[in-house]
Design goal:
Organism: Tessaracoccus antarcticus
CATH superfamily of the largest domain: Thiamin diphosphate (ThDP)-binding fold, Pyr/PP domains
Structural class: alpha/beta
Number of strands: 22
Strand content: 5-15%
Catalytic activity: N(6)-[(R)-lipoyl]-L-lysyl-[protein] + pyruvate + H(+) = N(6)-[(R)-S(8)-acetyldihydrolipoyl]-L-lysyl-[protein] + CO2
EC number: 1.2.4.1
Function: Component of the pyruvate dehydrogenase (PDH) complex, that catalyzes the overall conversion of pyruvate to acetyl-CoA and CO(2).
Pfam families: PDH_E1_M (PF17831), Transketolase_C_1 (PF22613), Transketolase_N (PF00456)
Radius of gyration: 33 Å
CATH class of the largest domain: Alpha Beta
CATH architecture of the largest domain: 3-Layer(aba) Sandwich
Strand order of the largest sheet: 12-9-13-14-16-15
Shape: globular
Length: 917
């Protein structure tokens, strides 16, 4: 028995009926269709009504699946405005040059790889965009942002070559970024879209699959954010993301589609190149990936346009009165479609058309060649143009275009549709000749035979009609693409006053460094020129971090405003959303937060407006969860602050294993674009943030991101010492508190204790225990950045390797500890590998303590005693080191361990038990 399901956005029976008689007439009409035409006719009419309701944006659920045919019928296709012949000839030049660039990169002695087939399948998709849609930076309405499919990069290089932006020498340096010199000049191209490697060319790194879709969504959202906040008119700018159907299996590719739909981002278009193949074989051999994606995107609220078949199919479909051809199209699997294009017209006739006598009759007078010339929609410029035009004119929702193509298209029978196509990087001599003939280029067999590894590139002179057409179209659309432009405006940064409060400390009040940072952020945002450029970004933890204090003032961004009364409306810190809100609240969504961070942190380039993203998150869910996105952010030359809150393995005591961060500084150290700090006090944070603002947004901006770990454990924040070593804070370590000889004499045994972050109070506790109980004088150093100390050391070691007999300044670690007396013991709330980063530059004996292993739920004091990183444990470690060198009796360490009950977890007392988790 068929049961009617509910309408997704509300049962109609719960809504008031404003016209009972009209409703009754509609119901009677439906009954009449069923009675006269049957259930199939009624179903068709209802589907058409739903389709029209979707077009008119009525707000009822759309169809999640349609037949395997083009969404736009021929009768609704606009006239193609371009010169069809010239554009065909241009595409052939591009196909040749793109393939030959990769082929030449396989010449003897090089063999660096590359991909030919992806661009071959998507050339038409790109060229229709380049010639008619993609707006350059100089367009009056602003430039579009285009996320090019990573494996299609040869096509973008080939186009830049035709435009004169790249030369043959550049193309021959493909994938040889440090070794391809021409007349003493390095001329090279990276494998994929890498802004870090080509900062004037590429804008968005995309080849780590799944990152492009999500970043494109948040780029489109950020464009609207700037517009709604009055920072820039972005109403004419469009975001295009070119993706692969195999790439859509990445969870990130589909995971945030609802964000684009909820924000009604009609400034966003996904173009999915459905060549039915991933790297090793079919995406859905037994199924239909285009149908799957259509249902998925429609269900998420997107406008879906399918470009399945080229115009040669139009008369066949028009004649398909019984639906036989559509039924064949619907029932044929992707695996079979792939096999068809790896064979010939006779094969297609037998295994496709002749499966039904009605469809066989349609082509009985056609030759096999006629059948073979039937193309797929993604290779038909008319179908692609129609889809693009419809997408850019649609309002109220983002659009996805599903374009049916063939991987390796136009490259010949050894490439098209083959499983191995993605890995094929060069053409045999016969393939070269066949390809040459297909693209109709004046290259003789003799030229190809003389050096099969170096077929010539082809670029007509500037007076050639094809060249004039290319330049004319790009001038009309606002300039060449891809293109990246750097800094065009600079920020006025806050002065001393903004940092004064935090540097004074907290008096008698105990506050965590998280709160110290939030207070500093509030003070920075009192600067009226600077404040609008700050973009606070939070997942669903604002109250944990104390950022809810911003809710009533700068508000949470929502393109629809706040159309409800929040439950905490009467409270001072009520939840406030606004169309011009400043906070990007992404929900429980760290990956989306980093995508938003990247869009904001590259606004200086994409929009010419420098913005300062400040992303505050659980430190455990930063680099560990979204490390690939942060790596891409570095590649994209993102600037901004990453604040790893609730940092450390023992501070978030009630949360358990997966919340306890014992290693984020190590993960951060793997990203060359990240400057990582682990400060202990508010005044250290003030100097680090000020340095970060000056370094990233000053007169000579650096393309880095600052990662600062802050803690949720309350402590009294001391006043900044008058003679504080600011250079030491910024370089990574400084002497916080020298040991006192009062009461112990100048001949007391010496030691050095290095600590970072929340571990500094334990080091100070150990300093006191050592002196009072054993007469040992220890100096305590605050290590604000193990990572920066290591980075400097490695840079110095590289210089020494290249010039071993040169003269060099000591590293900062060597300079500070070179004359310090006694063994060195280092501690932090992270695993030992964190302080181990500087081991090779520490003179003398070096012992590290750390929270290795899984975290767990317990009190802070118990956790620190368990990991042996608390004050008494540090003291015992110092005594053990002194005993090893013979400076004190070895028994002292044993006595201390017994005195402090080191093996008793319940005896731990280090740290503050207060503070919310």
């Amino acid at each position: 028995m068929d049961e009617a399901g509910p309408i997704l956005n509300g049962l109609p029976t719960t809504l008031p009926d404003s016209d009972l008689d009209e409703t009754a007439e509609w119901l009677e009409s439906l009954d009449g269709v069923i009675e006269q035409g049957g259930r199939h006719r009624a179903r068709y009419v209802m589907l058409k009504l739903l389709e029209r309701a979707r077009e008119r944006q009525i707000g009822v659920p759309s169809l999640t699946g349609t037949d395997y045919i083009n969404t736009i019928p021929p009768s609704q296709e606009p006239t193609f405005p371009g010169d069809e012949m010239l554009e065909r000839e241009i595409r052939r030049l591009l196909r040749w040059n793109a393939a030959i660039m990769v082929h030449r990169a396989q010449r003897p002695g090089i063999g660096v790889g590359g991909h030919i087939a992806t661009y071959a399948s998507s050339a038409t998709l790109y060229e229709v965009g380049f010639n008619h849609f993609f707006r350059g930076k100089d367009h009056p309405g602003g430039g579009d942002q285009i996320f090019f499919q990573g494996h299609a990069s040869p096509g973008m290089y080939a186009r830049a070559f035709l435009e004169g932006r790249l030369q043959e020498e550049d193309l021959d340096g493909f994938r040889q970024e440090h070794s391809h010199y021409v007349n003493g000049e390095l001329r090279a191209l990276p494998s994929y879209p890498h802004p870090h490697q080509m900062p004037k060319f590429w804008e968005f790194p995309t080849v780590s699959m799944g990152i492009g879709p999500m970043n494109a969504i948040y780029q489109a959202q950020f464009n609207r954010y700037l517009h709604n906040r009055g920072m820039k008119d972005t109403s004419q700018q469009h975001v295009w993301a070119f993706l692969g159907d195999g790439e859509m299996d990445e969870p990130e590719s589909r995971g945030l589609l609802q964000t684009a739909a909820n924000d009604e981002l009609d400034n966003l278009t996904f173009v999915i190149n459905c060549n039915l193949q991933r790297l090793d074989g079919p995406v859905r051999g037994n199924g239909k990936i285009m149908q799957e994606l259509e249902a998925f995107f429609r269900g998420a609220g997107w406008n879906v346009i399918k470009a399945v078949w080229g115009r040669g199919w139009d008369p066949l479909l028009a004649a398909d009165s019984e639906g036989a051809l559509v039924n064949l199209m619907n029932s044929t699997s992707d695996g079979d479609y792939q096999t068809f294009k790896a064979n010939d017209g006779a094969y297609v006739r037998k295994h496709f058309f002749e499966r039904d006598p009605r469809t066989a009759a349609m082509v009985k007078d056609w030759s096999d060649d006629d059948i073979w010339r039937l193309t797929r929609g993604g290779h038909d410029y008319q179908k692609v143009y129609s889809a693009y035009k419809s997408a850019t004119e649609f309002t109220g929702a983002p659009t996805v275009i599903l374009a049916h193509t063939i991987k390796g298209y136009f490259l010949g029978k050894h490439f098209a549709g083959r499983n191995a196509t993605h890995q094929m990087k060069k053409l045999a001599l016969d393939d070269l000749k066949t390809f040459r003939d297909r693209v109709n280029l004046p290259i003789t067999d003799k030229v190809l035979e003389e050096d099969p590894y170096r077929p010539p590139y082809v670029r007509p002179d500037d007076n050639d009609p094809r060249m004039r057409y290319i330049h004319e179209r790009r001038r009309e659309l606002g300039g060449y693409l891809p293109e990246r432009r750097g800094d065009r405006k600079f920020l006025s940064l806050p002065g001393d006053k903004a940092y004064a409060s935090v540097r004074k400390g907290s008096g008698r009040q105990e506050i965590a460094t998280t709160m110290a940072f939030v207070r500093l952020l509030k003070d920075l945002m009192r600067d009226k020129e600077f404040a609008p450029h700050v973009v606070p970004i939070i997942p669903d933890e604002a109250r944990t971090f104390g950022i809810d204090a911003f809710f009533p003032t700068i508000k949470i961004y929502n393109p629809h405003g706040q159309n409800y009364t929040p439950v905490d409306n009467e409270l001072f810190l009520a939840y406030r959303e606004a169309k011009n809100g400043q906070i990007l609240h992404t929900g429980i969504n760290e990956a989306g937060s980093v995508a938003a961070f990247t869009a904001a942190g590259t606004s200086y380039a994409t929009h010419g407006i420098p913005m300062v993203p400040v992303y505050v998150f659980y430190s455990m869910f930063g680099f560990q969860r979204v490390g690939d996105f942060l790596w891409a952010a570095g590649d994209q030359l993102t600037r901004g602050f990453l604040i790893g809150a609730t940092a450390g393995r023992t501070t978030l005591t009630g949360e358990g294993t997966q919340h306890m961060d014992g290693h984020s500084p190590l993960l951060a150290s793997t990203n060359p674009a990240v400057v990582s700090y682990d400060p202990a006090y508010g005044y250290e944070i003030a100097h680090i943030v000020r340095n970060g603002l000056e370094r990233m947004y000053g007169e000579k901006p650096d393309d880095v991101m600052y990662y600062i770990t802050v803690y949720n454990e309350p402590n009294v924040q001391p006043t900044e010492p008058e003679d504080v070593d600011i250079e030491g804070i910024l370089r990574g370590m400084y002497l916080l508190k020298a040991g006192s000889f009062d009461g112990v004499g100048e001949d007391a045994r010496r030691a050095q204790i290095l600590a970072s972050g929340v571990g500094v109070p334990w080091a100070l506790e150990a300093q006191q225990l050592l002196k009072e109980d054993f007469g040992v004088v220890a100096d305590v150093w605050s290590v604000t950045s193990w990572g920066e100390l290591r980075r400097e050391g490695l840079e110095q070691d590289e210089k020494k390797f290249l010039d071993p007999w040169g003269e060099y300044e000591p590293t900062w670690v060597e300079k500070k500890l070179g004359e310090a007396q006694g063994p060195v013991v280092a501690v932090s709330d992270y695993m030992r590998a964190v302080p181990d980063q500087i081991r090779q530059w520490v003179p003398g004996d070096y012992t590290t303590l750390g929270a290795d292993g899984f975290g767990f739920s317990d009190t802070r004091a118990a956790a620190r005693r368990y990991f042996h990183i608390d004050g008494p444990s540090i003291a015992v470690a110092v005594l053990q080191s002194l005993g090893t060198t013979g400076d004190v009796p070895t028994q002292w360490a044993s006595d201390a361990a017994k005195k402090y009950r080191i093996d008793d977890v319940t005896a731990g007392t280090s740290g503050n038990a207060g503070g919310d988790s």
